[in-house]
Each structure stands twice: as structure tokens, then as C-alpha cells.
Amino acid sequence: MRQILVTSALPYANGPIHLGHLVEYIQTDIWVRAMKAQGHQVTYVCADDAHGTAIMLKAEANGISPEEQIANVKASHETDFSKFLINFDNYHSTHSEENRELSELIYRRLNSEGHISTKDVEQLFDPEKGLFLADRFVKGECPECAAQDQYGDNCEVCGTTYNATELKNPYSTLSGSTPVLKTSKHYFFNLPEFEQFLQQWTKDEGRLQPSVSNKLQEWFEAGLASWDISRDAPYFGFKIPDTPENEPDKYFYVWLDAPVGYMASFKNLCEQRKDSTDPAKPALNFDDYWLEENQHKTELYHFIGKDIVYFHALFWPAMLAGAQYRTPTGVFAHGFLMVNGDKMSKSRGTFIQAETFANHLHPEYLRYYFASKLSEKVEDINLDFADFMQKVNSDMVGKVVNIASRSAGFIYKKYDGMLSETCAEPELLNDIVRTGEEIATAYENREFSRAMRLIMQCADKANEYIDSKKPWAMAKEEGTEQEVQDVCTVAINIFRQLMVYLAPVLPELTDNAKAFLNIDDLSFASRHELLLGHKINKFKPLMQRIEQSQIDAMIEDSKQDLQAAAAPVAEDKKSSSNKAEKAADSDHIEFDDFMKVEMTVAQVLECNYVEGADKLLQFTLDIGKEQPINVFSGIRKFYEPEQLANKKVICVTNLAPRKMKFGVSEGMILSSGDPKTGLVVITLPDECQVGDKLA
After folding, report:
1. Is 629 inside any structural domain?
2. How far is CA 11 from CA 71, 265, 505, 533, in A?
3. Which of 99, 287, 476, 557 is the most buried (most CB within 10 A)?
4. By residue range, what is the domain housing residue 320?
């Protein structure tokens, strides 16, 4: 049994949870449940990130203290997470005594080893508010293109990055006053001293995803810089200890004590469980998971968004190593959430809060949909509402739940709920049991989309079996009573196995299935057990279809009045003109244009000649979705169909369908060469997984 500690990134305590947040927490929760189901001891902790200027200002705007602000938000966060069945072992706050003690201890250890230095920093200061302005709180004219109302770090019009002090005509977004330059002493963590350690640490196998390691290499090449870990008063946070008495108070920058919140939440849990005798909530020892000497005895994993990789893969491990603590076993990053192919939008009603979604749709719908999209890659995922409705209705209602609903009635009415004493199709059941090994591996590797595909393939086998036997027809014939009972028993047992596999994703459905099946255990090991000579309970609907009206109502509730929002800043005419001229003279496309192309690993299921077309071959391709797609390709003179049968190819899958007289082509197969003299279809090795995207 492995001992594993898992965390998700800490949500900031100044607003509600939205669907973008939930990508991470659902992903983490599924992984934790899957590992627990396989018999490992897994502890999942998190906390609110409760410090910083933004919290202080939000509280001020609400007319309450920062402590009241963070307490209110924490309560709302915990409510939202519970609705989506996120099962933390502990949910804490960075504004805690445990976090204060640990942050001070880590700082003191770093300082004693010479890893902390100071220097004077010139910053913009709001004379009315009496505070130094972070980049987000100052706007002005871009020093490059003169665009108005640009933030203090980069220009949204021309893309130039700069320091806030370089802005022309700056103003404070807090008071509207003109800021002044003011010098202050700041404390720095000397990150470059850990470059050699980090170079090795980031390359250790399994520590980071390959794309993250590659990105970090760019930062290494650019050169690591010392990290400013202090902020001036007024600030809501912890004071830096041991500073000179004749100097103003200094506070830890929020990103220093935020990751320490992982340790603090776990320490708080250890205290809660110190006398526990409950095997489901065992006593825990802080040192077992955090002392440097124990890093090969226990495991520590962080699930984070790709936007905070720098903090978690550079600053955090360096801080831990410098303070003689263990470092994470793995840091797993995920992409952002798109809705209907675009960034979440308030005006379109697609900036959806967790509470709003739960008011209209069952949260498990979202858990399943996210699971069907998530992989181990750092890719953005798209919540397409049409696809969402179709997938949930087809997969969960039409396939999985349908297996139970179409079989249970016969068992309950005709056989008093009793299943057959023997299994009529042991090989079919064994096949689905064997698939469990692949599913378990997919879960552990965070290949949730692959796990869902494998589960749905098992569901398809069950429905194909039921359709072939037609128990509803047999039930009308005399002398078939045993066969009907046998067929329905096989179906109910497959349903049970599917619930074992879906339990990490759909815990509430699983609990309801337990009640229907009259069993207590749906752990991963239980997939080997068959329900024979067993009495089930009366079937009750386990999941309802999604209706378009529910989605429409949710979107309508999510829309907000944007009339007060600032109009987009007009781009400088000269700048626009220069850009247009540059584009006209260039043969290059923009990176964003390239990223729109979706290249998918596809398996050739069929390849045939097209009657009446001397240039075309017709392909039936498996792209990892429920239904294969049809593609026509003008390569007939270069290939015989049998040459491409069962090959893995690259297909562009987001082309608009093209209607031809022979049918509709739903993609394009990639080839290389000259179309006049010879084309070679690009084929892929067997190791490539159908449905994976090329990056």
C-alpha cells in the first residue's frame, strides 16, 4: 500500500468558484478516488489562499474586515466543492497559525543558510491610498505604442512587456491619483543559487510533464532571477520575522506562504486525527510526508494550472530544498477551460459559476464530461454544450444506466429480484474484468479520457449482448424463463463492473447503484466478484437526460450586464497600419492560426475505392470518439486500399465538413510529397493512442 499526499492549487479568497476552477478540483478528486479504490492510502488536502493586497481591498470595498472576508469566501468555496462531490480530507486557510509557524520556519532556515538578501526597489506609490501599487493596480499609456489604459506589466494592444515605472501618464486604479516613485527595501530569495539542483530536479523521470520540462528549460536559458518575497504595509498577511526594529514592517509576498498552505493544511489534519482509530481516517504523521529523509517512503503530488508552473516547479522546490524539506514527487499541470470554443464570457453567459451550474444541472454530468476530455497532457479543454448534452445523454443515460434499466424490470417482476445461480456468459464477464487493468493504469496516468473510452467500450459490449438476446422478446415465449433470467443476470453483472470503473468519476451514482444492487462494496478489487443467487432491489431511475432548456436557463442566469465595463482600447492607427503592412509582406502565419488546427491520431477501420471517382479513396476512421468519421482522400493513384487498412494516420479533425457527391468528408488525412508525382500518407507507430492530439 502506497502512502500518498495530494493537493490542488489554492483558490483565491476573493470570489466564488467557477467552472474553470473545477477542471482542476474534479481532475484531482477523480485521481484520488481512483487511487483509493485500488487500495492505497491517499490524503487530499487544500486551503483558501487568503492573503494579499487584493483581499485587503475587497474587504474594504465590502465594508468588512479581511478576516470576515476570507471566512465568508471559505464557507462559499466549501459549499461549492461539496456540491461537485470534491472530497477533501481537509480544507484549511493560509491565514492560520500552522501556516504562520511553517512560513516563518522556512524563511528562517533559508535566511540562516544565506539564501535571503535585500536591495532597494523603486516602485510606484499611491499617495492617496498610502500603498505601493502592484502592476494590476496601475494603468497608463504604453511606452511603445502609446495605447491608453494599459496595465503596469504589458500592453494588450502591441504586446510589449515593461515595468510599471515605464508607463506614460500612469494613474492608480484604486484612487485615480497620479502615483509617485518611492524607494523601499525588499527581501529576496536567491533562486539562482539553486539552478544546478533545479536543472536536475525538473528532469527527473515522472516529476513533470515533458512539455512543462521543455518550458522550464527556456527559463533556465533566459537565466533565473532572485525572487522578491516581501511587500510593504499596508498588506494583509504575515510579517517577515527578525527584521531590524528601526525599519517599517515587511510582509511575506502571498506566493511565499501560499504553497506552504499545503503543509499547513496537512499539519492541521494530523492534529485532528492524532488519536484516530478509524481505518477510513487513519492517524497521520507530518514528518512522514515532509521530512527530507522520507521522500522515498511517501509520495507527494500537486495538481495545478499551467499558469502557475513557475511557482510550483522552480520557487517551491527550491524553497523546500533550501529549508531541508522533501520536494514533490510530481507536479501535474493542466490547461484552461474553453466554453463553446472560446474563453469564458460573461456577456455570452459562459462565465459560469459552480453554484449556477448546480442550480440547473447535476454536477456529476460535468464530472463525467471533464473526465472524458482530460488527459495527462497540458492541453486546454473545451466545454461544448451541444457535445456535452449529447455525450452525457448517449454515454451515461443511453448506454450505462440503460443496461440496468432494461434488465432490472424483468428480474424484479418475474424473479422477485433474484439473479441466476450461474453465469451464462463467463467469458464476456472475464473480458470486461481484464479491461479493468487497462482502466486502472489509465486512471493512475491521468489518462481519464482513455479510461472513459475503455469503459464505454465495455458498455457497448453489454448493450450488444442484450440486443442480440432480446430478453423482451424471449419473455413472451413459453419455456424461456431461465434464459431470460440468465441474460438479465449477465447484464446486471456488467453494470456492476461498470460502476466499479466509474466510481471515481460518479460517486453519487455509484452510491445509488449500490442501493439498487443491494451491495456495500464497489472497490476496484470487487470487479472479480459476480452477483449470482443474489437479490437486487427495485430499480429507480439513476440519471436523467439533459434537456436543452436546462442549458439555456443556466446560460441565461449566468449573463451579466456589461454596460459598465470599459470599452476595448482602440489600437493606434499607425500601429495597426504597420501590423497590416507587415502581415501583407510575410509568408508566415501567426501562432494562434497554427494552434487552431486539430491533428488527431486516427486508426483506419476501412479503406475502399469510390465508385465513379478515379482519384478518391474512402476512409472510415476511428478518432477515439463514439462514432467513426468518414473521410475522402485524393490518393487513389498512389495506394491500393489494403495497403492502408488498420494503419494509424494523422487526421485534421476540426475542418468544416465538406459535402461531395459521394458523401460528406469530415476531415483530412495528412500526406507528404507532390500531388502530381507521388504522395505518401504519414503513418504512425502502433504505440500512438487513437484519439490523442498532436502537439
Report:
1. yes
2. 13, 14, 22, 49
3. 99
4. 3-105+255-373
